[in-house]
């Protein structure tokens, strides 16, 4: 017999599933990038955002770890983004044999356009909410994402220590719905 799941946990899981499904069903990513005028696929957006949030160019491997995706995925996306003019490769100051990847001017402008488009959509969807309600939601969502990331890291470490095979990155490879910023913790609680 399994333990009874608290009703608040059931409602949280249900709400998260509804949001993820709704964003997918209504193709919100596609609408956001079209409105932003940035022709990139869903998998490219978290890479662009992570590069924008970093203080400088990154090694592709660091980017893969930050986004919890496989390195070949990052390499393919970076090649596409470089061809489109959104990223540029620069020498690694710590190891001249390696390259780092950073946003070009076009890449920075693309990220700002995507962010502005997403913010407009959210603002319109939550127009009936008070500023205090939106602020509370932002704090709780950031806290939830931070806690999910911490729990996932701890679970992965426990699984690895127990000899369980690594389940790999999430099937989605990172999406706007799951972790909008691809950030490493906001520190806001």
UniProtKB/TrEMBL annotation:
Presence of keyword Cytoplasm: no
Keyword RNA-binding on entry: no
GO MF entries: DNA binding; DNA-binding transcription factor activity
Disordered: region residues: 151-189
InterPro entries hit by this protein: ArsR-like_HTH, HTH_MarR-typ, MarR/SlyA-like, WH-like_DNA-bd_sf, WH_DNA-bd_sf
Coiled-coil features, chain-numbered ranges: none
Keywords for the protein's UniProt record, in alphabetical order: DNA-binding
Biased composition (Low complexity): 152-165
UniProt-listed GO biological process terms: response to stress
Position of the signal peptide: none
CDD domains named in the record: HTH_ARSR
The HTH marR-type domain, residue ranges: 9-146
PANTHER family (alphabetical): MARR-FAMILY TRANSCRIPTIONAL REGULATOR, TRANSCRIPTIONAL REGULATOR, MARR FAMILY
Name by which UniProt lists this protein: DNA-binding MarR family transcriptional regulator
Source species: Actinomadura livida
Phylogenetic lineage: Bacteria, Bacillati, Actinomycetota, Actinomycetes, Streptosporangiales
